[in-house]
Structures are given as C-alpha cells and as structure tokens.
Design goal:
single chain, alpha+beta, 14 strands, binds protoporphyrin IX containing FE, oxidoreductase activity, acting on paired donors, with incorporation or reduction of molecular oxygen, NAD(P)H as one donor, and incorporation of one atom of oxygen, heme
Amino acid sequence: MWPGDGPWPASAVTAAALLVAAVIIVRRLFIPRLWPSSGSGTERRGAASGGASGSARLPAGSLGWPLLGETPAFILAAYSARPESFVERRRLLYGKVFASHLWGSPAVVSSDPEVSRAVLQADASAFVPWYPRSLMELMGRSSILVLGGGLQRRVHGLAGAFFKSPHLKARVTADMRRRVARAMAAWQRRGAPVVRVQDEAKSIVFEILVRALIGLDEGHEMQYLRQQFKEFIAGLISLPVKLPGTQLYRSLKAKKRMTTLIQKIIQEKRKRRIAAGCDEDPHDGTTHHPRNMIDVLLGNGSDELTDELISDNMIDFMIPAEDSVPVLITLAVKYLSECPPALQQLEEENMELKRRKSGAGETLEWTDYMSLTFTQHVITETLRMGNIINGIMRKAVRDVEVRGHLIPKGWRVLVYFRAVHLDAAVHDDPHAFNPWRWKDRADVMTGGGGGGFTPFGGGQRLCPGLDLARLEASIFLHHLVTNFRWVAEEDAVVNFPTVRLRRGMPIAVTPRT
Ligand code: HEM
C-alpha cells in the first residue's frame, strides 16, 4: 500500500483529471496523426507530380512530438534488446508501411519486403541517399555513399568488378590465411588464453582490406592509419557540432590526417604511372591486374576521379573493414557458441575440407572457402539475425508512389531491413538461429532473396563488397574451428549506434590436438 492509500480527496481527483485532459489536448494539438486514407485529409488526389499516380496515399502514422518527432522513441528502442519493437508496435497500428518523423524530417518507414525492394531498386530520379548530418560532414560530398547519377555508377562498377575479381580474391585469401595463422599461433604461444574475437577480427580484417584498397603493407603507417580511423569512425554518429573538444571536431581532424597520407600514396602512384608511360588499361586481364583499388581508379583515366574523390572514397571503403566484416565474424562466433548442432556441423564440414586438401598436398583457394555450403548458410543466417546494417535512409526528390503509397517530395524513407529479417511472416521462428533454413536458397549468395533478405541492400547500390565479406568470414571461421575449441563467455549484442558485442565476445580457446 502507498502512503495515504484510500479514497483520494476531491482536489486530487480534479487535478488528476485536469492533467489527463491537458495531456490529451497537447497530444491532439501537437502530435499529428496521419490516419488511414479512407477519404481523410492524408489522401492526396492529383497532388503527386512526376510519377505518383492520383490514387497514391500517404501511409497512416504519427509524426510524434514537435521538433523531436518519433526520434526519441526510435532511439530508445534501438538501445534495447529489441530495436525492431519501434516498428513492430506501429506495424500493429498502421500496417507494414507507416508515416513517422525521424532525424528532423517526416519519414515513411517500410517493413514491407515488396515496398523495400521497390525503394532499393529506384534510381536517383526518385530517391537519393540520406544520412545524419555528422555522417555527411565526415564522408564528404564525393563519397560513393552520397554520390548519385553517372559518377556513382562508375565508381560502383569499378569497385564491384575489382572486389569480385578472382585475382583479388586469391590475394585476399593468401593474405588473410597468413595473417590469421600468425594471430592464432600467438594465441597458442600464450597457453590457453581468453581471446576477444571482435578485436582480433578488427585488426586482421582492417589490414587485409586496407592493403587491397590502397596498397599499404603492415607497419608503422598502417598502425597510424588505424589509429586515425578509429577516431574518425567514432564521429560518424555524433552531435553535429564542430567546435574544438567535440567528437565531430576530433573525427574531422583525424580524417584530414588520413587524407594527407592517402593523397601522398595517390601522388606517388600517379608519378610512377607517368614515369612508366603507363596509360594501359589495367583491366585488360592479360598484361597485369590492378593490385589495389587506387590503381583501379587511376587506371580509369577519368578526370572526374580526382585525388580528393579517390581519397574520400578509400576512407569510406574502410568502414566495412573496421566495422561490418569484423562484426559479422564476431556475431557468427556468438551464434555458433549458442547453437552446438550448428557448430558441430560447421566443424565437420571444415575439418573434412582441411583433411582432403592436406591429403592432396594442396593449399586452400578462395573457391574452396566459398564452396563450404553449410559455412555459407551460417554466414547468411548471421547476416539475417545480426542486422549489421539495420536499414538505409533515402530522401524523395519528388512525390513518389511506391506500390500505392505516396512518399511526398522531401520526405525520408527508412527501409528497415531489421524488421523484415525478424518478421515471423517472412522467416519462420525469426529469433531462432537456424542456418538450415537456407538449404535451398542459393540466390542469397549473390545478393538475391528479394526484399525479404537484404543485409547488403539492393538495386544500384547493392554492396559491391558482399563476396569479400563472405570470403573473409569463411576464412576466419575455417581456421578457428579447425585449430581450436572454445568456451564462450557471457556477452550481449549492442545495436546502437552501431552493432557490436558489448565485451568484444571473449572466448577461452584451447588448441585441437
Ligand atoms: C558484413 C559486411 C557488409 C555489410 C553488412 C554491408 C552492407 C552494405 C549495405 C546495406 C549497403 C547499401 C547501402 C545503400 O543502399 O545505401 C552497402 C553498400 C556498400 N558497401 Fe557494403 N557491406 C559489407 C561489406 C562491405 C565490404 C567488405 C566492402 C568493400 C570493401 C563494402 C563496400 C561497400 C560500398 C562501396 C558500398 C556503397 C555502394 C554504392 O552506394 O554504390 N561493403 N554495404
């Protein structure tokens, strides 16, 4: 019982009634609701220009509080163990596509596979990428993530062709095998250590990918770059204030230092090309293969690919090296630790490959790792459950109709992958780690899978590094399970502002005899 429990005095009842009335009035006045379009004011007949048909309707929803919109509710959910609860709650009220107000702008949120797919497929005449201000500021205007039109397509095409080339995959495989073996030999020397998978994966993957991007070898400059990169990445989701002492300020300074180093590398390469009279096409496949992404972009010979554009993009391409791929590896280890039958099948598959190859006196090639069917299912399932990229935001450049929904000019669209990947209507028992569900779904290996499975996005911006991400994860897992057994310590997934393991996924490893 509370103190004073019992019948409330009349004044208290009146005060409570007034308070409730005030809250209702404030909500009515200031929190606009956009109700389903059965003839309500949200219907915009004839208002859509340049593509939206007359019958397109604004989805139902709520714009939340003045100025703040629904951002606080979104962030609150994002910090919880179930970030998708923000969408799930509104999905029950308004349907799979609903209106909201996020990051300072009205927005349509999609958790509908078909609508999401259509938004991803749309080109820059309908939607352009949208990112929070701190991120835009740090990435710069010439980042592929914000570029549109022909230049985005060119950089995307060059990156995709390079990252998918068998030659690069062979080099990454050799580098990664050597680097993983060195790290694991150090674990063995330390007896039976506790290893933080996230830290180990980060330093390995960063070195391998940076070498593929800018041709830098291990050593002092690589360490310097990584230090600066850590400072840079910390500001990606931060307050958009550039004053000394703020994270954004420190991150911009770190970017400047990285840019100086990368531009020095670009200029040296340019000089060498001129000295060698090297105007030949590095993609001819017969004379030589470009050794890194800078060579690819320089070899393209386009004046549009300036030093500034190249260095900005090299820095952006490092984000998956420090973040997405290591987190994919770490999450896979976590999920496997919690699912012994999956771990056992993965071990058997990898041990079998190791025995076969060493019996024949052969080393493992990238094709061997990629043909490990069950290992690939584990990676696919990790991508579905882990939602390393929760979703993407676009801005409508005109009124756009998507499957009957109107997205007005200037509004954002949040294509929220996470809510689709964890929707029971799309994936059975979605919170269970079940790699076997992918048995007959070869399409997902190449970024297919429709709007129901989009960890790498889709359409013109489908991640060009998806093969590389899978390859690196497969190599790490192969060497881990064929050389060690482990006991995982308790750890939890944090989902905001980026996905990671709170303690870095500590595991106590013992070498296999
Ligand atoms: C687990 C690992 C990864 C995940 C989950 C991931 C996810 C994504 C997603 C969702 C997009 C689409 C963004 C959009 O539509 O706006 C994307 C784009 C991109 N990714 Fe990845 N990625 C991963 C690894 C990589 C790697 C290894 C690289 C290359 C080094 C890479 C390079 C890129 C680039 C350059 C783009 C921009 C493409 C464009 O806008 O044209 N990613 N990635």
